[in-house]
Amino acid sequence: MCAEKKTVVGVSLLTMTNPFFRDLGDAMKDEAAKHRMEVLLTAGEFDAAKQRNQVADFIVRRVDAIVLAPCDSKAVGTAISEANKAGIPVFTADIAVLAPGVKVESHIATDNLGGGRLAAQGMIEALGGRGKVAIIEHPEVESAMLRTKGFEEELARQKKEQGMAIDIVAKLPGGGVKDKSFKAAEDLMQAHPDVNGIFASNDPSAVGAVAALEKAGKLGQVKIIGFDGMPEGKQAIKEGKIYADPIQFPDRIGRQTIQTIVKYLAGDEVPKETLIPTALYRKADALKDPVLRLNQNLPTNRNVPGLLTNAQREFLVQKRYLNLPVKNGAAKRRVSFIAEERTEREFEIELANAEPNFWAFLDLAPFQGKRAMLKVDLLPQDSKALESIEQADRIKGAENLYQERLRPQFHFSSRRGWNNDPNGLVYDRGEYHLFYQHNPYGWNWGNMHWGHAVSADLVHWQELPIAISPREFGDWVFSGSAVVDKENTAGWKTGKEAVLVAAFTSTGRGECISYINDRGRSWQEFSGNPVVKHRGRDPKLVWHAPTHKWVMCLYDEVGTTRNIAFYTSPDLKSWEFQSRIEGFFECPDLFELPVDATGSSADGSDAAKKTKWVLTAASSEYRIGQFDGKQFTPETPRLPGQRGRGFYAAQTYSDIPPSDGRRIQVGWGQMPAPGMPFNQMMTFPCELTLRTTPDGIRLCFQPVREIEKLHGKSHRLKAQPLNPGENPLSSISGELFDIRAEFEPGEAAQIGFNIRGSEVTFDVQKQELLCKDRKMPLRVADGKVRLQILADRTSLEIFGNDGIDYMPMPVIAKEDDKSLALFAKGGAAKISALEVFELRSAWEEGRRGVGAWER
Fold first, then answer.
1. How many other C-beta atoms lie within 10 A of the C-beta of residue 740?
2. Active site residue 421
3. Phi then psi for 231, rounded to 5 degrees?
C-alpha cells in the first residue's frame, strides 16, 4: 500500500528576525498541519538574491505551492516568473509583488493602506492636530509603501476637511531595521530640530528612532507612531516611549494563506486579495496586555529555563579553530568574539542546543596566545550550546571533507557554510584568485564576508582563510572586484611586486577600497573609505589604457530606475562620476573582446583586429558596443546570455597575461546542497569569445581547456547510425563526465542524453534543446549539431554549437544511479563524433591530507 503523497508548500518570508514574520510562519505551519500539509519555511533576510535562490530550490523540489513575503517587491519578479514557468502556483503573504508580467494567485495581507490611515489618526491625536512630522520609510517593500501612502493621504484629508495643521517635513529610508532607522532619526534631528512627530513604518524602525531620541535627549518631546504590534514595540508603548501602533495580526494572515492554498489546490476559485484590518494599540491597551503582564511577572532572582539572557565564556586561544555547532532552522543568536577587550568578529548563527547538522568554524590563527571571550546574546539559560563550542586544530566533522555525497567534484565550493557571488577574480603571479560572498557560520545567506581560494590551473583549488571580514556587525562586505595596480597609480607599493587592489561594497558606508602587498593574504583598508556613496553596490574595477584611468562600474539606482554607473579615477582613491546606462541589475562587468579572433567573420572579411566592448550584469544578459573610458555606447539591445537555471552574478578575471589572452568567467552556481555542511558552488570557468553568427555578433561560452586535466578513461564512438531504442553508451557507468558529441539529426524527431536520470534533449523540429524546465535555441548548422556537457554531482553545464548557447542546470541524481544513455526518438540519427571522458575529482590531492588546505 502506497503512502498518500503529502502536499508541500515552500515559504520564503522577508525575515525571521522580526517576531511578526516568526508568528506568521508558525501560524502557517500550524494551519498546514491541520490539512496534512508540510511547510518548508525559509526567509530571504532582506536579500532579494537569497530569496530567488530559495524559490529556485522550491522549484527543484517540485513543491505544490510557493508563498512569498518578498524582500524586494520588484526584484522578486524574476523568481516568480521561474515558478510560473514551472507551473507552481505562487501566493503572497503580507507583502505584495510590484513586478510586471508575473502571476500571483492570491495576496493575503494586513490592510496596510488602512493601517497607515490609522497611524495618521494616532499622530493627530498625539500632537493635538498641529506640528511637524517625519516618516522613516522602507520604500523597497510594498507593504511599507502602502502604510506611508495611507499616512500621507489621511493627513492630507484631515488637513483639507478638518483644518489640521500637521505638515510632513522629511521622509528618510530606514530599511525596516533598527540600526539604519537609528541613523535616519539622528540625521532627522540635525536637519529638523523642531520636528514634533515621527511615523516609523514598522516597530524595528520605531525602536531605532526611540534610541536616537534618547541619545539626543528628546524622548517625550517627539511623539512616535510605529506599526506592527511586536513585543518590543508594545513594551515601548507601555513605557510611553512610543505613542501608539496600528497592530497587525500575523496569525490570521498565516492561517488565511494556508486556507486559501487548500481551496486553490481543490479547484475552488480564490479571491485575488484578502486584507486583514489593523487596530490602534495605545498605552491603555499595553497596560492590560496579558502577554506584557506575564513578562513583567517573570521572577528575576533565579535562573528560569527558557528565559533569554546573555551568556559569555572566557578562554586562552591555543588552537587553530573554534568549532561552532549549527542547527539549520534554529533561532539565530548574535555571537561576539572578543580578543584582548577588542571585538574582532561578530555574527549571527543558528546555534545548536543539541545534535548539530554540521560544525562551522572561526579561524583563530590571528589571535594565538591571546585572552578571549565568546559572548552569545539571547541564549536560553538552559542551553548547552555555549559549552559545546570548542577549540581544536582540525575542523570538527571534516573527516570526509570533499567526499560528501553532494560535494561538487570539479566545481569550487566552500568547505563550510554558504557561498554566492564570485568576487575579486584576478590573476597574479601564477595564481588565480577567487574571492566570493560567504557566510562562514550558516547554511543560508547572511554574515557576508569575502571568502578566498586560489588555483594554479582553474581546476584544483585551495581554500585560504577569509580575506575580508565585516568591520562591525551590520556593515557587511558585499560584492566587488580586484585588480593588479601594475603602474602603482595609488602609491601603495612597498616592495618589488605590484599591489593587489580590491573594491567592495560596505553595506554601512558605501564603496570601499582595500589593498595588499602579500599576494592577497592580508588586506588593508584605504583610510579615505568610502570612495563613492550612492544608492547601489557591486563595484567592478577596469583599467582603461587609452585614457590611462581606472573605471569603476557600479549597479546604481536613481529614483525607480536600475542602472550601471561609470566613475573614473587616476589613482583608485578619488573618483568622478561620468555616466550611467539604464536596464541592468546588480553585479556589472565590462570588458573588451576581439570579434572572431580565431577566424574570419561570416561575410569573409578580416575580423581578427576588430574589437567590441561587452557590458553585462547579474542575469548574464549583455549588450555589445563601444566604451570611450567614460560612456558605454550600445550597438545592440539587451541579449540573452546563459539560458539555464542556477547561474547568477558572474564575473570575469582581470590581469590575465597577454601570452594567454583569454577572458575567463566564473558565475555563482545556484545549486543547493540539502543536508550538507556547505551550500551552493561556482560554475565551471568559461572562456568568453565574440563570434559572428547569422543573428549578428554574439557572446559565446566554452569551458576552459583545463578541464582536460581531469580527463580519465575515454569512451570514443566511431561514426555510426543511432536508431530508436539503441543505447551505445549502456556500458558506461559513473557520476562525473565531459561529453563531447556531434550529430546529424537525419530522420530523428529528438536526440539526447540521459545522464543519471536527467534528460538533455534536442528537439529537431523546434530547433531547441531542453533540460528539465528550461529550453534554449539550438540550430542545425551545416546539417549538424554539436554538444558538450559537463556533469558533476549537483549540476549539468550544457554547451551548444561551440558555446553559442549555454545552459547551466541544478540537478541532484539518485545516489545509486550512475547510468548514461544516448537516444534517438521518432527516427534514426547519425553520430558523427562522440567521446565521453570519465572525470577524476579535483579534490583527490586535497583528500590525501586534510591539513593540506589549513595553511
1. 16
2. yes
3. -55, -40
